Automatic annotation (TrEMBL):
Species this chain originates from: Bifidobacterium reuteri DSM 23975
CDD domains, per the entry: bS6
Pfam families per record: Ribosomal_S6 (PF01250)
UniProt-listed HAMAP family: Ribosomal_bS6 (MF_00360)
Organismal lineage: Bacteria, Bacillati, Actinomycetota, Actinomycetes, Bifidobacteriales
Family classification: Belongs to the bacterial ribosomal protein bS6 family.
Source organism superkingdom: Bacteria
Protein name as it appears in the record: Small ribosomal subunit protein bS6
GO MF annotations, alphabetized: small ribosomal subunit rRNA binding; structural constituent of ribosome
Membrane-spanning intervals of the chain: none
């Protein structure tokens, strides 16, 4: 198995303040490094309007993280993100050429 490049985007609850959002993001960054992956500095897009309502919410805090890891980590990351009630939506894309 070899590592691949990925881009994770998640939309967090709009009620989270900046500190809460950073703390939430750091949990996932910790998981990436614990599993032997590496990541670039997270890109916080801030609070934006959603294209459509999700779970009664019309806005969300967007965060994008580019990382390199084994494919199994992406599956685990997706699983863990989906368990968190503060995460409204996730998307992980493989960015290899």
């Amino acid at each position: 198995m070899s590592a691949h490049k990925y881009e994770l985007m998640f939309i967090a609850d709009p009620e989270l303040d900046e500190r809460g959002l950073k703390k939430l993001t750091e949990q996932y960054l910790e998981l990436i490094t614990k599993e032997g992956g590496s990541y670039d500095e997270p890109d916080y897009w801030g609070r934006r309007k959603l294209a459509y309502e999700i779970a009664g919410k019309t806005e969300g805090n967007y965060v994008v993280v580019r990382y390199t890891a084994e494919p199994a980590l992406s599956a685990e990351l997706d699983r863990v993100l989906n368990l968190n009630e503060s995460v409204v939506r996730t998307k992980i894309l493989r960015k290899d050429a």
